[in-house]
Amino acid sequence: MEKSLARYIWKNTRLQQLWILAVVAASMVPYFLSFDLPKQIVNGPIQGDGFEGPGARQTFMHIAYDIPLIGHVEFFQGLQLNRFQMLMALSLVFLALVVLNGLFKFYINTYKGRLGERMLRRIRFELIDRVLRFPPIHFKRVKSAEIATMIKDEVEPMGGFTGDAFVSPALLGGQAITALAFIIVQNFWLGMIAAGIVGVQAIVIPRMRKRLLDLGRQRQLTARELSGRVGEIVDGIGTIHGNDTSNLERADIASRLGRIFSIRYDLYQWKFLVKFINNFLAQVTPFLFYAIGGYLALQGRLDIGQLVAVISAYKDLPGPLKELIDWDQMRQDVQVKYQQVYEQFNVEPLIDSRIQELATAPVGALTSALVVTNLSLSDDSGARLVDHVSVEIKPNETVAIVGPNGSGAEAFAEALGRMVWPDSGRITIDGRDLLDLPESITGRRISYASADTFFFHGTLASNLLYGLKHAPMTDPVYDEKEALEYKWHSIEAVKAGNPTLDLNSDWVDYQAAGASGPEDLLKAIRPVLDAVLISQDILDLALRSTVNTDVHVAVSDHVVALRASLRDRLRDEGLDGIVVPFDFDAYNAQATVGENLLFGTMKRPLMTNRRLAAHPYFQQLFRETGLSTDLYAMGLEIAENAVELFHDLPPDHPFFQQLTFMTADDIPTYQALLQKLQSRRFEDATPEERSAIIRLSFAYIEPRHRFGLLTDELMDKIVSARKQFHEHIPADLGELIERYDAERFTPSASLMDNVLFGRIAYQQADASDRIRAIMGELFDALDLYDDVLSIGLEFDVGSGGKRLTMVQRQKLNLARALLKRSDYFIFNRPLSALDQRVQDQITRNIVQDLHEEGQRPSIIWVLSNARLAEMFDRILLFDRGGLAEAGNYPELSEKNGMFKELLS
Fold first, then answer.
1. Whose CA, among 227, 635, 731, 886, lies 20 to 30 Å from 602?
2. How far is Cα 156 from Cα 596, in angstroms, rounded to an integer?
């Protein structure tokens, strides 16, 4: 990595810098002319110099040059203009010079900005590229939040400085020198005064700003440390809550913020002191010009036009000079930042870039043995984890690795998966060191899975297929406009040193998964999901999800048939009462009061409960039907019963799980509200109080809560109000509410609700599990199982996969490794979060049943249960970092050794 920022910029942008420097040089000509023109206007047409007679004229725009070897050449004779015409002509030339100088500035600044953005893009990409090539052990020493902050924020000024690195000193220095030279030409002593002040500013101000640089460096470091600390708090929030250390973290953050405040306050004080001195020096010069220049003009040693021109020229001198001083400060500041980035990212040894080169062609199978020779591993502290282990693992062989925690078995598996690098010894395949093999081979032909899981923010499917996305397999189809835009982006990517890989391409290697394309990918995925016992979890996610009818047409089209099949199946099994279907003319006792009243679903987030309650039509319906007073009275009784029954219970009591209308935290609130409303009528309550009480009745279900509050009369009244609601519903509300219809699919409802078209009876034990099992069978019978599974695979796993349980994450991690159909599978206690029975079942599925005959890969499994080693061809027993025993199950189980102790 280049140590000097200036050399880094010049190395990558020298051609562009030379071009813009040439443009800057060309811009100095009209810049100088714009200084001389005011003098000509004042002395000539305005004061009458050269226009002494009444009809006097002067030549305008006479263009002639004496060219060596050729002689005098006249290009344009010029125009003869009177005094007024000359004034207008010179003024128009002045205006043209102003426009030309502005256009030069516009072009230069735009070019600089584009150049800077390209360099920022380049350096960010290079830093991320280096992160991808860091040695594994380095990630244990750095905080991810600090790395992200440096790439996102700390390199930002470097992009802006790139355009200014060479152009600004040339442009600003050229402008300052041009203005200063013009002043000296007009009057030597005024020029010396300006030069003296400029010299003081150029020497004093940069020296004073050294303190600013030091404070800026401290501010940068403390801000980065704060970012890393906040990242630690987010990642360790469970540990903080579990150990009651939130106030310790508050104290730590307050201390860090105090330190940052102190640094920034000192920075502001020094910054504005420097600014004050700089502004003072800048304002002293005009005073001297007016005093001394005016004195010289009074003595006749300086004409008015020259004085005006000098003052006008000096007006343009402080600006470039100040910006030049600012540029020097920015140069030092970004060099300091770049030095910090250099120190953070200049890590040795980096993974060789050739190891990560793109490979689009299929990679051949690994047919040679995995040979471990004299392998030794250590942790960060230098403690030996594996000590001089040698072993050979053949293709198609299944090897069980057993041993107590800390025996070295886990570290040995990490070395096989290239998660750690050996201190000494080698791991080779066909004579080639494992660390020297391209990732296009190891990442496709060797799979590694452990208990540590990580998933990127996205769908479950994108994370499951992540191990198949090695290179773009097909080019996307673009229309003419999109193709031009992609071509422009590709050109810019090349100029910024970025690859031109198209993220919109299809990156999934379907053949590696055993599929021919996206059409039959699910058929290849499903055996893997079944093997790790996650299919039912994904099916449950699908049932709780809404369905995109544009994508999953088959599911939405068969919902009505599914409803009928479900009813027939329940009738055949004598389970008619397990689901109470929706009926527009009847009250559904298993649904809430709100669901019965609405008889449909809201299109969220466009419509919510609060928006519906506030809608004028809904409020009018309540008034006309009298439901306001009925549900208010019902809500009061619910509140009274809940407060009386549960106010003495602890917040974590299981009874609160049965309450859908109130939480443990709501009990005190409603207790106080009941006391306030005890002797007040419905009309006396405020709208907020009425809403709080009526809201309780909306979530009430008689068979579940059993307060005996729903009379036949009230249920009939709700059904009548429902009919009136849908009969006269306004268009704006009708577009946001989908009414239940037994003959069509409801897109805003979940798949479960669509198939049930009703509610499960709460009186039935295990009703939900039985319904799910029946639905799974129905999906299979109608050949819809894969379609439903694909809906579940669209579930968003959240940041780091945290919307999934630990059990689901470990299953998914294992499935992702299996889907690659590698030649070597290395499983390092991958299912530690599962109970032993499920671990055993999944292990048996993978070792015995998953792969077809003749395609059995080599499986190396660090087992938690030594008894499962019976399924493997060979057993490696680790103890205290060494290979204690090796052999097959019958040999080691009969031997009175350590393995027999693990079995007992």
1. 635
2. 57
Give the integer Cα–Cα distance in Å for 483 and 504.
12
Rounded Cα distance, 118 and 337, in Å: 19
Separation CA 169–CA 179 (nearest Å): 15
For 30-59, give the DSSP string. HHHHHHHHHHHHIIIIITTTT--STT--EE
What gap in Å lies between CA 755 and CA 770, rounded to an integer? 14
Residue that is written with structure tokens 């993974």 in the block: 351
In percent, the amount of the chain with pLDDT more than 90 equals 19
Could you say which DSSP state residue 476 is in? P
| Of 807, 818, 794, 769, residue with least CA distance to 531 | 818
- Cβ neighbours for 131, distance < 8 A, ≥ 6 positions apart: 147, 151, 345
Torsion of CA 449, 453, 457, 458, to 10 degrees: 40
Q: Could you tell me the CA-to-CA distances from 309 to 189, 316, 317 in Å, in that order?
A: 15, 11, 12
State the angle between helix axes of 521-531 and 806-818 in degrees (0 to 180), rounded to the nearest 10.
130
730, two tokens: 């306004």
SS3 state at 841: helix
Query: How far apart (Å, rounded) are the C-alpha atoms in residues 468 and 363?
Result: 12
Residue 316, classed as helix, strand or coil, is coil
412: helix, strand or coil? helix
Displacement of CA 855 from its chain's centroid (Å): 39
Q: CA 381, 382, 383, 388: dihedral to nearest 10 degrees?
A: 150
Q: How far apart are CA 455 and CA 460, in angstroms?
A: 9
Beta strands in 668-755 (DSSP E): 737-739
Q: What does the block give as tokens for 458? A: 């996205």
Closest CA to 603 of 748, 705, 446, 729: 748
Q: Whole-angstrom Cα distance, residue 342 to residue 4?
A: 9
Secondary structure (DSSP) of 504-541:
TSEEE-TGGGT-SSGGGHHHHHHHHHHHTT-HHHHHHH
Contact between 9 and 162 (Cβ < 8 Å): yes
> From the first residue on, what is the mean pLDDT of each consecutive set of 10 residues in the chain (904 residues)?
83 88 86 75 73 74 72 74 81 87 87 85 87 85 79 79 79 72 68 69 68 76 80 77 76 83 80 73 64 66 62 62 72 79 84 87 90 91 89 92 90 93 92 91 92 89 91 85 87 87 88 88 90 92 89 87 89 86 92 89 80 82 86 87 78 66 79 82 81 84 85 91 89 87 89 90 79 88 89 90 92 93 93 90 84 74 90 92 90 82 77
Residues 6 or more apart in contact with residue 447 via CB below 8 angstroms:
467, 817, 818, 820, 822, 824, 825, 826
Contact 750, 545 (CB under 8 A): yes
Which two structure tokens, joined as six digits, stand for 838? 């499920």
CA distances (Å), origin 570, targets 463, 525, 573, 579, 580: 37, 31, 5, 9, 11
Count CB atoms within 10 A of the CB of residue 300. 7
Structure token pair of residue 406? 């800390």
Structure tokens at 210: 């050294």
- Output the six-digit token pair for 78: 């010029």
DSSP state of 421: -
Buried b (16+ CB within 10 A) or exposed e, 829-847: bbbebbeeeebbebbebbb
Q: How many residues does the chain have?
A: 904
Measured CA to CA in angstroms, residue 124 lies from 140, 221, 754 at distances of 22, 19, 48
Q: What is the pTM of this model?
A: 0.77
Rounded CA separation 98/41 (Å): 15
Distance of CA 824 to the CA centre of its chain: 33
Map tokens 């939130």 to a residue. Answer: 246
